[in-house]
Specification:
This protein is mainly alpha-helical and 96 residues long. The protein has helices at residues 4-7, 10-15, 22-26, 36-52, 54-57, 72-82, 84-94. The chain folds into 2 domains: 1-30, no CATH class; 35-96, no CATH class. The longest helix has 17 residues, at 36-52. The protein starts with a helix and ends with a helix.
Length: 96
């Protein structure tokens, strides 16, 4: 069995000897808050972000798409990839 560090490029191994790179961290699963207030706040933020960034990030989706807890990772991915700095900050807030 090969270790992850052996498969990583040299520049990743230089900064992360265990082979964990930027892509590994960014593609990690998003933690789900335990308390109901945090879950409702997170869901409301994801719904607002979908509406606010629809033209920039989610233009290929339906504009009336129901954003549920199951779709929050989809919203985070769209914000990270196409939301610019503002979208990236909201995605970071959704990951807390």
């Amino acid at each position: 069995m090969r270790c992850a560090a052996a498969d990583s490029p040299a520049w990743v191994r230089a900064f992360h000897p265990d082979g964990v790179g930027y892509g590994d961290v960014m593609n990690a699963e998003v933690p789900i808050p335990v308390d109901d207030a945090a879950r409702h706040r997170r869901l409301a933020l994801a719904q607002q972000a979908y509406r606010d960034f629809f033209a920039q990030c989610f233009w290929s989706c339906r504009d009336d798409l129901a954003i549920t807890e199951d779709r929050i990772p989809f919203v985070i991915q769209g914000l990270r990839e196409n939301g610019g700095h503002a979208g990236y900050r909201i995605a970071a807030e959704l990951c807390r």
